[in-house]
Write a structure and sequence with these properties.
six-stranded mixed sheet; two-stranded antiparallel sheet; 8 strands
Length: about 725
Amino acid sequence: MKHMNSEVKEERTSNKKRIDLFLVPIVLIAAFLNLFKIWTDEYANAYYTAAVKSMLQSFHNFFYASFDPGGYVTIDKPPVVFWIQTISAKIFGFHGWSVILPQALAGIGSVLLLYVLLKRTFGVWAGRFAALAMALTPIVPAVSRTNNIDSMLVFTLLVATWMLFRAVRTAKFGWVLAAFAMIGVAFNMKMLQAYMVLPAFYVFYVVATKITWKKKIAFLTTATALMLAVSVSWAVVVDSTSADKRPYMGSSQTNSVLELAFGYNGINRLTGNTSVTGSSHKQPAQAQQQTASSETKQTSNSNAESSQSSNQSKSSSSKKMQAPGGGNQNGMFNTGNPGPFRLFQKGLSDQISWLLPFVIFSIVGLFAGVKFKGPYTTKQKESLFWLAWLLPVAVFFSIAGFFHQYYLIMLAPPIAAFAGAGAVALWSMYKQRNGWKSWLLPGGILTTAALQVYIMSPYVSSIGVAPIAGVGALGVILALVLAVRKERKNSVTNYLGVAAMVVLLAMPAYWAMTPIIYGGNSMLPAAGPDSSSGMGGPPSTATNSKQSGFNGMQPPGSSSSNSSSNNQMQPPTGSSNGGQMPGGSSNNNGQMQMPSSSSSKLSSSKRKSGGMNAEVNKKLLNYLTKNNTGEKYLFATTDSTSAAPYIIKTGKPVMAMGGFSGSDPILTVSKLKAMIKKGEVKYFYLSGMGKGGQSDVITWIKENSKEIPSSKWQSTSSSAQQGPSGNGTLYEITLK
């Protein structure tokens, strides 16, 4: 800590020709958090893993990111990340860990990039603290340990940031073009989410470059045009291709990539309107959140099951969890209620907000005395960049109608950057007894410790009182002692500063390890003692891991005798993906299984998570394989939930008739008739009534097929099949 006050130039020179030994353990920590035990996740997010399995089979599937080997429908995202995952699977073999590996490496790479970005301007200690803060931000390893897109997206945007900073330092226009082109590449990872950093890029380039306004406008206009061209390049190719020569664009309503980008993956995220065209039940975000957090009742075929569901629903109501400070509305998928303090609400705060108070104090210190008209120092210019990244993204998550907890990784880089730069700046102000600014360090420590106590308070039953009391007490003591010793200069004060940083990072470090300790959820990544649920919030009280949880989902053809409606959450009526997530699972009543904490700890066997049924019914598979007479598709089903495990297991085409959630308007009765007559499909696994525009197709199938006796394909003699999407039945149709 005592070296913090050294000049940046001296630190850079002294470390130029040798490895920073302080960085080595930080990278090792990041590697451990991102890589350890990823080999236990056999399926990862099954929705995306099935796509990789399909993409390995042909260039056609590879280019379009087809969900199924038959090229029927794509996944709901652009292909770049899945191209990388497919290449990884081609090199290392098709495994859960091989599709996760690129994201894990991206998480480590982001830690290194933050070090590089902060070190040059703010000093080596700032780089170290920023890298460590990034590594220990809980949502970062939670996401990086899955095959979801966001970790790779953040890494790509940090590469673009490095290019932009280099463009400003070297005054070379080529680096500006490269930076904005890289954002275009990021668009082809997760569409409009990549554009969230654009305010930072524009503001920084305008403020930091020493060229005329005419050149600034010309350069930025050209770079933006290139970014847009790269962004829509794949979309234009796909949308220009005849629909009968490519898969249907999954989760779109018009079979268009651009509609997907600016609709479902764009403005609908802000408004919370995830309803489909064919549904008459469009709900505002607030109504969705209220519905999602209410107790639910599962329709049953027997009076006994109905009674059991009712009792469990009453129990769920009585055990409804309260957020710290009051309130029981955790929002859809536990993302809180829109408002200025949303990031401090339960479900979000423990993923990303551990250091936010310290960041706020750091921003005050870094911008203290800055005049609007300048001139600005390099530190102030780069601080402005991180602020222009932080604020718009924070505002979005504060007001957005629909997102998932793991999207919060977008906030990790600016928070970590301010934690690193701020630690050095506030320490310098404190040591120099710089008036009111010298109080920012103890003030930041005190308020941050207080917030961390607040964040941990709902988890007393999981983590105990000791760590909560320890962080609170040590935070108060260290802040007060630093305040009292403000006028003194000795080594003891230096050690107090180090101790304060350790205290503030201790619980984020524990939270970051929870996906390893308790098990993660590859469908809805989240950190915390309930990390295997992927839903955030304090652990549930369920005790039977086979009765609740995404990992407890049963495959088509397994017994339903032990099924339960406990811990289920009701998404909005009439929603398409309805608040669902890629790889998510729900029954046809829109209910989502919420895992219990009792099933969270990893066993020695491989964990088949992924948010879908992680098992394949061997009896069903044997029946379908034996009776296949040359049909292209092994079977057809309503959505991706039933299809994904069979694609992963066999590599054979399985048709998700309605795409990811079952509501894409892909199939018509006439089209299905033609496919059956051509001998492309004859078996249909159906559960419930279908969704959205698929109801007519489902009705026609039931009216024109013969039901296959359950004894031929079910794993047990149970008469009621409980599949991943509700009560299921196997049908056969042959048309001449």
